[in-house]
């Protein structure tokens, strides 16, 4: 629990290269041995999301449209895209990315610059975005907003819930989305469906790798997929809000949250 700073998100290029971001512009790094604060203060604005595309490349976004870039071992402030808060960011291996935030704003990075590609008529806050194969993408947000990018344009998709959605992640050929009242949606075969969940609180983040999937949220909610069903993970600690979760290939994972809480997951094969 380094410093007790509220941590908003976590991502990794591998089990020995993990980054977390949070309140007051704090950035932390795990090198396979220990967590340490990034030594330089890049911004005092809250950082809400981080994506790491390799051991030498990454991005973070946050309050007031702040965008930070990680390149060759250093973080630096690149641009303020908008006066609105940004909540989600994701990049593909080719260096193309999306950032989403308040009032339905969507920005696309084409390898050289950011452009506003917001979908007309969408004004709900967008909370997360994930890029899929072939340049496709999903974005989710308030009022059960789900947007799909087919590689050329965004369109809105109707889903079977009215809840605010906070997180989205790829899962095999489909995706998961999580939100308020413990809702979990699964996209399989091209359609979204509600799946049973033991949670009743807001779920804020989800990630999946292979047959492993985890979701986390308020009041100590940490759910894992086992035998085709979502189950609450028992924790020997006081409840705390978990804001971000990431899984790595090889059975490693991390969850971060308020009060600087960091949990490590290590898969043990039966």
Secondary-structure blueprint:
Layout: E1 7-14, E2 17-22, E3 27-30, E4 35-37, E5 47-54, E6 57-62, E7 66-71, E8 74-80, E9 86-91, E10 97-101, E11 106-109, E12 114-116, E13 126-131, E14 137-141, E15 145-149, E16 154-157, E17 165-171, E18 174-179, E19 184-188, E20 191-195, E21 203-209, E22 212-217, E23 222-226, E24 229-232, E25 242-248, E26 252-257, E27 262-266
Antiparallel strand pairs: 1-2, 2-3, 3-4, 5-6, 6-7, 7-8, 9-10, 10-11, 11-12, 13-14, 14-15, 15-16, 17-18, 18-19, 19-20, 21-22, 22-23, 23-24, 25-26, 26-27
Structural write-up:
This protein is mostly beta strands and 270 residues long. Helix content is 0%, strand content 55%. It has no helices and 27 strands. The protein has a 4-stranded antiparallel sheet, with no helix packed on it.
Short description:
This protein is mainly β. It is built from no helices and 27 strands.
Biggest sheet details: 4 strands, antiparallel
Helical amount: under 10%
**Broad shape:** globular
Classification by helices and strands = mainly beta
- Major sheet: arrangement of strands: 1-2-3-4
Radius of gyration: 17 Å
Q: Approximately what portion of the residues adopt beta-strand conformation?
A: over 45%
Number of strands: 27
End-to-end separation in angstroms reads 30 Å
- H/E series: EEEEEEEEEEEEEEEEEEEEEEEEEEE
Regions with little confidence, pLDDT below 50 for 5+ residues: none
Number of helices: 0
What's the rounded overall pLDDT mean? 94
In terms of quaternary structure, the protein is single chain
